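Bit of a strange request maybe. I'm writing a small parser for structure token strings and I need a real example to test against, not something I typed by hand. Could someone generate the tokens for this chain?
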Amino acid sequence: MNEIIESLRSRKSVRQFEHHDIDEKTRELLLSAASEAPTAGNQQLYTIIDVRNQEIKDKLAVSCDNQPFIKTAPVVLVFCADCKKWDDAYRSIGLTPKGAGEGDLFIAIEDAVIAAQNVVVAAESLGLGSCYIGDIIENREYHKELLNIPDRVVPICMLVIGYPTEGQKKRPKPQRCEQKFIVHTDSYHTLNTDELREMLEYKAGEKSYEEWLTAFCKRKYDSDFCKEMTRSAKGYIGEFE
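Reply from user aminoacidic:
Good idea to test on real output. This should exercise your parser:
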């Protein structure tokens, strides 16, 4: 099998790392991989914050939903959708552009996440493990101050990267939903009740579908952290109105 396809199939999130540093050459390879990602208009509408200060890592481990493995990761990268720097460049030569709006934000988010995924693929090829941390979107005011993030710049995802422990290497990758529920031909198809059950029921394990889905809704969709993420996201979007 094509080794890139095999890497994509075998890759899984890693949340425990060996106590090994990542050398500067490898770190640079990861960051340069980000810069090779597809980008709207070749604008690279993102900024990557390479968090090296241990005190900041410690704080992020708490503010991002109390996940201690964040502070032990050798590499912590915050990918920001950046609608500020191009606007600043236009204004620096006397132009009066419209100002970044919600559409600009969406394109910048795409750029930032594509760049992050390039790093994930590069890390896997180098024998490194990684994990996306979406909780960086939460606690808007705190993270803006901690990372000195100005308006019209949104920390959209964080990656933690390191050498996986043996236990993490052996941990099976979670099963994905069948493709027939994920890929729709020509137009969107709203899944009915039976189709939704067929798509998700395997996740229930020994529990009933209803019991598992109720618990999952409470733990994720209706959780306090999810509500906080929505609050913070509204604040970020408000910067573009």
